[in-house]
Design a protein that fits this description.
about 15% strand, four-stranded antiparallel β-sheet, 12 strands, alpha+beta, about 290 residues
Length: about 290
């Protein structure tokens, strides 16, 4: 993307293109306005100037440029998986680390976590991000660090580092790399919401092995959970996953098949009261059988 754009996408455009039809479009549903529209990735899942910061009166795109650089390094990984088949042993240790990093970036840059991040960062120190102020006076350095961590603009600049911090769990001896799976759904048309990561409520408090489902494209889904070698998605799992995407979305969901999206929105409205923690836990149980 152009870093001069005012449209700061929290879901990258290269990622969104994996959910479009052959003409590059998808149908978007607005949960707030209860309307459908046909559109392209560049016009969706962004906030205007979200990552523009003001440093002593000077506007800076430092954060947006950082995200753009990270996207350029991770897009080839997504493409590699997209072009693979279920017969390929695609999940090398390097690919797993990059996938984990991508998931963490998608998690922490999302507007749905704005308030969560503000709460967390107020309790953190700058060294928690792997940074520190260097000077000949240690006491003065600590004072500067404390002053910096009181500044909202510093909080903004540190937010991309939250993704890197999420990689720390992978160095823990109890981390289970065998729970990484890619499922294949050729010709699929899944629903994608504006907060696309589905966490398992039963393990969300586990900072090491918390389970999740992450749609990588219309045809590939990342699952971090025990799946007993699952490569194809069961039909009921796919439906429940799409309903979960609708429920978790703060406002927008999309799908390359407009009629399917309309049907699923209607189904969601009818069964809205059923989307409890138990519903989400059962999604993970379905792939563990």
């Amino acid at each position: 993307m152009s870093t001069n754009s005012k449209k700061h996408h929290y879901l990258p455009q290269f990622y969104l293109r994996g959910f479009t039809d052959e003409k590059g479009f998808f149908t978007v549903y607005d949960k707030k306005l209860d309307i459908f529209r046909r559109s392209r990735p560049e016009n969706n899942f962004y906030e205007k100037n979200k990552n523009l910061i003001d440093i002593h009166g000077e506007k800076s795109l430092f954060i947006e440029n950082m995200y753009s650089h990270l996207e350029s390094t991770l897009a080839p990984v997504v493409a590699l998986i997209e072009n693979s088949s279920h017969k390929d042993r695609i999940l090398s240790s390097d690919i797993i680390v990059r996938l984990k990093f991508f998931v963490e970036i998608m998690r922490w840059r999302n507007p749905a976590l704005d308030d969560v991040y503000k709460t967390i960062v107020r309790r953190m120190k700058i060294e928690d991000f792997g940074l520190n102020v260097v000077s000949n006076n240690e006491e003065k350095s600590k004072e500067i660090e404390e002053i910096m961590m009181q500044e909202p603009v510093v909080w903004q600049m540190l937010r991309p580092f939250m993704a890197a911090m999420g990689l720390g769990s992978m160095t823990n001896e109890s981390y289970d790399a065998n729970k990484w799976n890619i499922t294949y759904q050729e010709g699929g048309f899944p629903i994608l919401g504006d907060f696309p990561i589905i966490f398992n409520p039963a393990t969300i408090a586990d900072n090491i092995n918390g389970e999740f489902i992450f749609p990588l494209s219309s045809q590939r889904t990342v699952i971090y959970s025990k799946t007993n070698g699952l490569k194809q998605l069961p039909d009921m799992f796919s439906i429940d996953k799409d309903l979960a995407q609708i429920h978790l979305a703060k406002r927008f969901v999309c799908c390359k098949r407009g009629e399917y999206l309309k049907f699923m929105i209607s189904l969601y409205k009818k069964d809205k009261h059923e989307f409890t923690d138990k519903f989400f836990e059962n999604i993970f149980l379905a792939v563990n059988r």
